[in-house]
Amino acid sequence: MTPFHSSVRRTTTPIDSLPHDSSGFVESPTVLLVDDDEAFIQLVADYLEDEHGFETVTVTRPTAALDHLEDDETVDCVVSDYQMPDADGLAFLEMITEAYPSLPFVMFAGQGSEAVASRAIRQGADDYLQKDTGDARYDLLANRIRHCVTIARQRRQLDELYDAIEDAGHAIFVTDETGQITYANPTMSDLSGYEKSELLGETPALLQSGEHDDAFYEGLWETIRNGEVWHGEVINERKDGTQYVIDQTISPITDGRSTDGYVAINRDVTERKEREQELERFRSAVKHAGHGVLITDVDATIEYANEAFEEITGYAASEVVGETPAMLNSGEHDDAFYEELWETILEGGVWHGEVINQRKDGSHFAVDQTIAPITDRDGDIDGFVAINRDVSQLKAYRAELEAQNERLEQYGETVAHDLRNPLTLLEGDLENLAHVAKTADDDVESATVLEACSNLSETVDRMRELIDDLLTMAEQGQLVLDPEPVSLEATAEDAWRQVDAADASLAIEETTVEADPARLRELLSNLFRNAVEHAGADVDVRVGPLERVAGFYVEDDGPGIAPDDRETVLERGYTTDESGTGFGLAIVDQIANAHGLTVSVTEGSTGGARFEFRPADAHQRH
After folding, report:
1. Is 163 exposed, middle or buried (0-12, 13-18, 19+ CB in 10 A)?
2. pLDDT greater than 50 at residue 487
């Protein structure tokens, strides 16, 4: 076999010698029928569609046919009459061959037009058939159309094959009918590591890597020996033992009757496969990343969202693909915010900042967001990737810390205020004692000294009680970070045992509360002591869940709390007992706030005081 060269010439093999191809491509071709006899051409079209499964388009003028071809690339064959108003069939044929040289053309003209037939064939018509009516004539036309379309397809295949061979960028080798290599181009040598002299006379088995089984190669050879083109990916091995991946097309070389050999075009896709594997690893990492990842095109249309994004936003990936990130806008940022963001990334920069977005359920969440451009090989931006770290909980912690700092400042002010009065009394008692000692003529009477010491002791006890309550306030006001399911009944019973109230009673309706057990017990014991102090030693106390909303209540059957005082009873220092510090209910409020609960004071079922505790975002029970 003569070696192939880059200047391969197109074949001039007669059409009738090419192998017949009865693939699905020609079983239902699309045919453009051109004839000024509307009734006749519609009759032909209906027959071709009903009896042969063709797709047909009918027009009555060549100019209309040309207009249709400009808009429709699916036409496989043109069938035309000869005598028509604005141009005869030969003039129309000339227009078609000039504009669409590879489109088959069949002249379907009236009888007695042999001269026209001869001219049509010389001008490039693929076939000529005398016009007549009847099934036999229409069947013959259908067969001629199939034949022409089949030949056109084969010509296109040959053109594609020649174009591939002439593409010096691909590795090409040619074998004889037994599979021995007769030609290999320089690219093939570079790719495999073998010189051209080392490949000649060998078979492609020289390049086998062991990655494919016998069935793989048996299927390949069966395809090409049947005269068909084989295409697929092959892992081969170079002379130095390293592997490479090729996208391979193998076509038979035929003279129309027998196969003389085979030509293989190999495109090296090793780097592409490595990139695909790297991309697959990246996709796997992104899919399971802890941060929400969003990929958009250059117009911000969402193309991909990972599982973490779904969890953060509440949207399924299928709901956001095709949309833009604007669907998450919460209204918390003005236009200037987004304009600055887009200006940064469209200029190729990376934008980083905190964004308040809106979930599918309407709630807001905060993300620490980084947006970076995705560029192609030329450096042009063709998309963006956004990585979102949900910082909503972190912001809540930060807000709580700020609130605690504010409370600490208030504690300091409270300490200064509440200790100033007893300190003033202490200073006065000390000055009085010193004055007595200085002004006495004789020894100071012991009774006088004891009285002064008693006053001092009471003041010191008062200060100690204030300090203990202030420390409790500071401790109980800390945010509960890890609440757990707690039995309200068991906790209330523990708290009740801390109260000295032998004649009082406690009734509990069981429920479960998310809380810190020790701090919930402190909250309940303070409420129980408050009930005993204000409602009497025989008070009846009830504890249970709220109706229709999450939360619980504590109520007694005492005199209750006047409506005007319900807003202030929880404030620090509020007390109706001269000996009290006014911190008991304030501590209750602190513990509730630390759990994310709000406290409301109302009237109980028997007229006493009722304290209700519910989450700040309490929802209606169903």
Report:
1. exposed
2. yes
Query: Please, what's the b/e burial string for 358-369 (b: 16 or more CB within 10 A of its CB; e: otherwise)?
Result: beeeeeebbbbb
Look up the CATH number of the domain holding residue 497.
Answer: 3.30.565.10
Q: What is the pLDDT of residues 48-85, one digit of tens each?
A: 999 999 999 999 999 999 999 999 889 999 999 998 88
Indicate the residue among 343, 360, 386 that finishes a domain.
386
Return the SS3 of 251.
strand
The answer on 256 and 178 residing in a single domain is: yes
Q: Are residues 270 and 300 in the same domain?
A: no
| Residue 64 near residue 130 (C-beta atoms within 8 A) | no
Model pLDDT, residue 3: 31
Distance CA 619, CA 601 (A): 19
Number of domains in the chain: 5
251 backbone dihedrals φ, ψ, rounded to 5°: -125, 145
Instruction: Name the pLDDT band for 274 (thresholds 50, 70, 90).
Output: confident
Residue 21 lies in a domain: no
Residue of 544, 531, 468, 542 lying closest to 500 (CA atoms): 531
Q: What is the CATH number of the domain that holds 370?
A: 3.30.450.20
> How are the residues of the chain apportioned to helix, strand and coil, as percentages rounded to the nearest 5?
45, 25, 30
Domain holding 561, by residue range, is 478-615
Instruction: Render pLDDT for 515-556 as a digit per residue (tens, 0 to 9).
Output: 988 889 888 988 998 899 888 899 999 999 999 889 999 999
State the pTM of this model: 0.35
Interhelix angle 517-535/488-496, rounded to 10 degrees, is: 50
Burial class (CB in 10 A: 0-12, 13-18, 19+), 172: buried
382 within a domain of the structure (yes/no): yes
In eight-state DSSP terms, residue 207 is G
Q: Helices H, strands E: what count in the chain?
A: 18, 22
Q: State the CATH number of the domain containing residue 440.
A: 1.10.287
Is 50 within the bounds of a domain? yes
- End residue of a domain, out of 165, 197, 216: 165
The first and second tokens of residue 44, run together, are 């032909």
CB atoms within 10 A of CB 111: 8
Distance CA 59, CA 80 (A): 10
pLDDT of residue 255: 72
Comparing 90 with 621, the larger pLDDT belongs to 90
Q: Do 323 and 252 belong together in one domain? A: no
| Same domain assignment for residues 58 and 151 | yes
Residue-level length of the chain: 622
Please, how many CA atoms are within 13 Å of residue 297, restricted to the half-sphere of its CB?
6
DSSP symbol at 327: G
Alpha-carbon span 400 to 393, nearest angstrom: 10
Q: Indicate which CATH number applies to the domain containing 57.
A: 3.40.50.2300
